[in-house]
Amino acid sequence: AIAAADFDLSPAKALGVGLSSLQLTKTQSSQVKMSLAALTFIASRGMATKMTVKNLAMIGSGQMGAGIAQVAAATGHKVVLCDTAGDILEKAKAGIQKSLRRVVKKKFGDDPDKGIEFIASTMANIDTTTEPAKAVVTADLVVEAIPENLQLKQELFNTLDKFAPANAIFATDTSSLSITAMASSTQRQDKFAGLHFFNPVPVMKLVEVVRAPETSDDVYECLMAFCRAVGKHPVTCKDTKGYLVNRLLVPYLFEAGRLYERGDGSKEDIDTAMKLGAGYPMGPFELADHVGLDTCKGIVDGWQEVEPDNPLFKPYPLLNKLVAEGKLGKKTGEGFYKY
């Protein structure tokens, strides 16, 4: 007989088995060892595949990037916000603080001390850097929100892939570009997906979680959980042009522009008609100005490259003219309307 103490009982102890006083034959000893080894392997596999997000690297600090950083930091995630220059990051942090003050008025109107504490704790969760490699070094999740240019995004992800932890998930906030094409620039295509938030991020509840063909189930579940953790409602999309919302919304905006160009109605009347007749909170021209005319143009230009004969993706001259003149909507003070 061989004493059970002659082999490692730590897994058994963890399971509360208590074998130390038993006397086992060689055959029984071997069987127990194999069983415990199998249980330990299963447990370790379960722990290894449970993916969670505690540390977020946010690349890009514009409206979308700053908004994502805000909601993540406000829900206890550690955030590293990255952009190309210090003054850009300072502007982003000032914008986040301004946004948080609006949140505090609604959420802590009767308790100003809690509001002050909320802002302080949220801002304490945000660090900044101008070095992308430094931003991702401890990240569980890396999200980019840089301009809608596929080559630019591919170059960024290719670089970040060399510095981020092997288990880090990569996600893009693109509203229209191919997730698969971006993932192909990395060695972690199973850990790559789309996380399309909506503007303004602190207000809008929806996130489109875009699964590419190679996105793993674990990564998908982790991203769905992350969205819920930051107070959003995720919906699942395939990697198709425009996903769900923009595939319906952008052609609608463009058709409104064509109505206006043909003289079928004024932009004011078209906006009013959609608000009062369809119950939309904004008309198509107001919404296009809010989104950004350059963003609208960039989305459809990308779609048209892939499907040049699709009439839904046909550009219209007025939009091109406004973008060329730098009249991009609310962010520049003028688009279809003046602000």
Q: What does this 3D model show about the protein?
A:
50% of the residues lie in helices and 13% in strands. An 8-stranded mixed beta sheet has the order 5-4-3-6-7-8-9-10. The longest helix is centred in the first third of the chain and has 24 residues. The chain is α/β, with parallel strands linked by helices and 339 residues long. The chain is built from 14 helices and 10 strands.
What share of the residues does DSSP label as strand, in percent? 5-15%
- Multimeric organization: single chain
Structural class category: alpha/beta
Mean pLDDT reading: 89
- The run of helices and strands is EHEHEHEHHEHEHEHEEHEHHHHH
C-alpha termini separation: 88 Å
Number of helices: 14
Radius of gyration: 26 Å
Helicity range of the residues? 40-55%
Question: Can you list the strand order of the major beta sheet?
Answer: 5-4-3-6-7-8-9-10
Q: Segments where pLDDT lies below 50 for 5+ residues? A: 1-22, 41-47
Number of strands: 10
Largest sheet data: 8 strands, mixed
Shape: globular
Notable traits:
339 residues; alpha/beta; eight-stranded mixed beta sheet; 50% helix; single chain; disordered N terminus; two-stranded antiparallel ribbon
Briefly summarize what is shown.
It contains 14 helices and ten strands. It is an alpha/beta fold. Mean pLDDT is 89; it is low at 1-22 and 41-47.
